[in-house]
Each structure stands twice: as C-alpha cells, then as structure tokens.
Amino acid sequence: CGCTNRTVVLTSNQSMEFNSPDWPNHYCDHLICTTTFVAPTHHHLEVKLDKISLEPNKDRVAFFDGINITGTHIEV
C-alpha cells in the first residue's frame, strides 16, 4: 500500500475527480502523498471537497500556492 508523488497538469476549464490511494478502501497508516496540480498561466484552481474523512490529530490535507510545500500555505 502506498502512493507516488505526482504532478497533474490541467488544461483550461478541465475538471477531475481525485481520490486517496486504494479508494474506496481505507489507506495505509503513515502514508504521505503529495500531488501537485498545475493550472494554465493566468488561471486558478477551484477545489471542492465532496466527502472527506480524516482521523483527528493524525490526518491532514494541506494546500499551498507555489511549486511545492515551501509556497504560501492556504488555510481551508
């Protein structure tokens, strides 16, 4: 059970569904996944979380504006 760090390059007005590894099964303990979404120049990303289940004090989802986690952290 695991995941690979990946980059998703989006086109203008493209939408996609994004799931955790091994969905709909539970993901493994101590799993760290990084996905970078790249929008076209002069575009932005819109993120909608339809269903999310996180284990308190253990799981998290973080968003950053930049090319990696050193970018500006976006509070959700």
The total of beta strands comes to 4
N-to-C CA distance: 28 Å
What Rg is obtained from the alpha carbons, in whole angstroms? 13 Å
What is the overall shape?
globular
| Major beta-sheet overview | 2 strands, parallel
Low-confidence stretches: none
Series of H and E elements? EEEE
Helix content: under 10%
Helix count, per DSSP?
Answer: 0
Oligomeric state as shown: single chain
InterPro entries: CUB_dom, Sperma_CUB_dom_sf
Organism: Pristionchus fissidentatus
Protein name: CUB domain-containing protein
Domain CUB: 12-68
Structural description of this entry:
0% of the residues lie in helices and 18% in strands. With 76 residues, the chain is mainly beta. The chain has one domain. The strands form two sheets. Strands 1-2 form a two-stranded parallel sheet. It has a two-stranded antiparallel ribbon with strand order 3-4. It is globular and about 35 Å long. The model has no long low-confidence stretch (mean pLDDT 84). Pfam families: CUB.
Give a brief outline of the structure.
This protein has one domain (1-76).
Write the layout of secondary structure elements.
Elements (H helix, E strand, L loop, with lengths): L5 E4 L25 E4 L24 E3 L6 E3 L2
Parallel strand pairs: 1-2
Antiparallel strand pairs: 3-4
Offer a few descriptive terms:
76 residues; mainly beta; two-stranded antiparallel sheet; 18% strand; globular
